[in-house]
Amino acid sequence: MFDYDPEKHYPTETESRVVIRFQDCDPLQHLNNAKYFDYFFNAREDQVPKLYGLEIIDLIKTYKAAWVVYNHNISYVKPAMVGEWVRIMSRILWHNHNTIVVEYYMTDDSKTQLKTVLWSTMRYVTLAEGKSTDHSGAVQDFLKATSGNLNVAETEIKDRVKVLAAELKKG
To answer: Among candidates 89, 83, 69, 96, which has minimal Cα distance to 152?
Structure first.
């Protein structure tokens, strides 16, 4: 379970290094569009426990609630190619009482070229009824400690793509 320490600094971004697998690519040797989701979700699932000491399943069991995706917004910038090593970063861009927006982005191995950006918007719902519920307890502490404060209502993904690409060019 996440044990919030107000004296501790929590990183807001996770990072993984992965290779693009042959079986996940199309005949042009590009990563299949649908496979980006698998790479992004698997990377975050691997990194959250390492970075924060938190298994999401523990939150689900304790609070009898989970996040359910209700919107994806993806921007494909440059293709990831078979056999290529890439970096996958993720972070919670924003949250409120019952919703989060998670940003995932992929770069080349040297983190100089942006490949893809994904925003997933998720609602926190009860397992029994599937009804929206508020974040509470350790869930709220985790979000407070790790979430950014980007105003997603005033930002479009295309603008975020430009920002991320410019940051990568600066190094």
So the answer is: 96
| Nearest Cα residue to 92 out of 136, 38, 133, 48 | 48
Burial of 13 (0-12, 13-18, 19+ CB in 10 A): middle
Instruction: Give me the half-sphere count of Cα atoms (radius 13 Å) on the Cβ side of residue 24.
Output: 18
Contact by Cβ (8 Å): 125, 64: no
Instruction: Quick: pLDDT tens for 93-122.
Output: 999 999 999 999 999 999 999 999 999 999
pTM of the model: 0.94
Helices 35-52, 137-146: crossing angle, 10 deg rounding:
100
Q: Which pLDDT score, from 0 to 100, does residue 4 have?
A: 86
The sign of the CA dihedral 52, 103, 68, 96 is: positive
What is the four-CA torsion angle of 109, 161, 115, 124, rounded to 10 degrees?
90
Do residues 141 and 1 make contact, with C-beta atoms less than 8 angstroms apart? no
Rounded to 10 degrees, the C-alpha dihedral 134/53/45/143 comes to: 30
